[in-house]
Amino acid sequence: MSDKTLRFDRLEPLREQVDAWRAGGDRIVLVPTMGALHSGHLALVAHAKAIGQRAIVSIFVNPTQFGPNEDFSRYPRDTETDLALLAQAGADAAWLPSVETMYPTGFSTRIEPGPAAEGLCGTVRPGHFSGVATVVTKLINQVRPDIALFGEKDFQQLQVIRSVVRDLDMAVTIEGVPTLREADGLALSSRNRYLDPRERAIAPRLHAVLAEMAERLGRGAEAAPLIAEGTTALETAGFGPVQYLEVRDAQTLAPVVRAEREARVLVAAYLGATRLIDNVAVVPA
Prior knowledge:
Helices cover 38% and strands 19% of the residues.
């Protein structure tokens, strides 16, 4: 790890450093992650450096956003590799809070987000977005950044966070960054490492199906028949169960019959034991 990237696992020294940077006129940009960093995360760091003077990356696998049958225990963790990647990417600081730091004895407050958290992942992962909203609020309050960056791959999460920040008058700008993809279209994700070679060969069909749906929706097609066709195409390719495949308004996340303004096609589907999510923008012609 280079001298340029500082490592913090206690809050007080982190805040002292952030205060010093801000006193010097630096803009602070936070990139929240759960570690297992890949090129998508590093692209967020690069963007953070492009729009601000100081990039702080948090690494915390948040237990409160995992359900009882989800993959918290097997979620990939490789802190030293992550720190080396952050040094190479030019991150100024890494914030590595422990579970005890984030949720000390007696911790009892949770944020319950509003309509943006309903449906989609909010239905199939009960309590997930409450955990996300709570931990992101804590991270923002801890780091006190000017801007926080989130990838658009987790599009519903991005909208939930935007609504929480707006509703709670939090002094931070939330910016979504377009999804980074492999050459074959598969969205970069820490969970991709779970895929075996056969599954990895199938995985790009997820984006291909969404892209075709988005193109047809942009030309005025109705959502319902395309959802039925897309679900069948994914199941035929080897995905299953398909937890949801929906078309939602890009701002409100309300269901869309026809895309009269920008929308998103969103999906969550299992490929073997691995749950993949993705989304594609719909731009009406």
